[in-house]
Amino acid sequence: MDQSRRELLTGAAAFAGGLLLVSARPADATPASMQAAIRNMLGDVEIGKGKVSLDIAPLVENGNAVPMTVAVESPMTATNYVKAIHVFNEKNPKPNVISIHLGPRAGKASISTRIRLADSQRVVAIAQMNDGSVWSDEVNVIVTLAACVEGL
Questions:
Q1: What stretches of 24-148 show up as alpha helix (H) in DSSP?
Q2: What residue spans of the chain are helical by DSSP H?
Q3: Domain annotation covers residue 59
Q4: φ and ψ at 131, to 5 degrees?
Q5: Dihedral angle at the C-alpha atoms of 67, 119, 46, 49, nearest 10 degrees?
Q6: Does 117 fall in a domain?
Q7: Is 105 exposed, middle or buried (0-12, 13-18, 19+ CB in 10 A)?
Q8: Is residue 108 part of a domain?
Q9: Contact 119, 31 (CB under 8 A)
Q10: 65 belongs to a structural domain
Q11: CA atoms 108, 114, 116, 121: torsion sign
């Protein structure tokens, strides 16, 4: 084979570009996978609306580090406290973003963190109380620059 240097480099660049297109597609995640993750975590318990406040911007420029705060109305006493806070999303490769376990000695049922969002999607925060009740809040978030891309 008598290839010129230019032909060899052009072929190599085309091959590498093809690999990048294959590996840079978003992971296959759906709203159904989020519902399945919630069901796996909590079972078939009825989830009420209220008591939970999910503070996350509805419009995010970059999905790589999205600030989020979840607060739950609770006196955090020995007889009335939040056992766990879970955050789920629809379109990330892993729908269960974070789970935090609390007790009455936590003093306050509030967490703050940064999460990655693969695309515009619904984010759901769920609180499990010590009496067995479960409460939630959700926010639809529009992401202009997605994160969580496979292979990068």
A1: 31-42
A2: 5-23, 31-42
A3: yes
A4: -85, 5
A5: 50
A6: yes
A7: exposed
A8: yes
A9: no
A10: yes
A11: positive
Between CA 117 and CA 138 the distance in angstroms is 14
Q: Residue 9 burial by CB count (10 A; 0-12/13-18/19+): exposed, middle or buried?
A: exposed
How far apart, in whole angstroms, are the C-alpha atoms of residue 93 and residue 152?
13
Q: pLDDT tens per residue, the chain (152 residues)?
A: 456 666 666 666 666 555 444 444 445 678 899 999 999 999 999 999 999 999 999 999 999 999 999 999 999 999 999 999 999 999 988 999 999 999 999 999 999 999 999 899 999 999 999 999 999 999 999 999 887 655 44
- What is the value of pTM for the model shown? 0.78
Q: Which residues are CB-neighbours of 143 under 8 A, at least 6 positions away?
A: 60, 62, 63, 66, 117, 118, 119, 120, 121
d(CA 53, CA 41): 20
CATH number, position 126: 2.60.40.2470
Nearest CA-CA partner of 81 in 95, 60, 65, 101: 101
Domain count, the chain: 1
The domain in which residue 37 lies consists of 28-145
Contact 127, 52 (CB under 8 A): yes
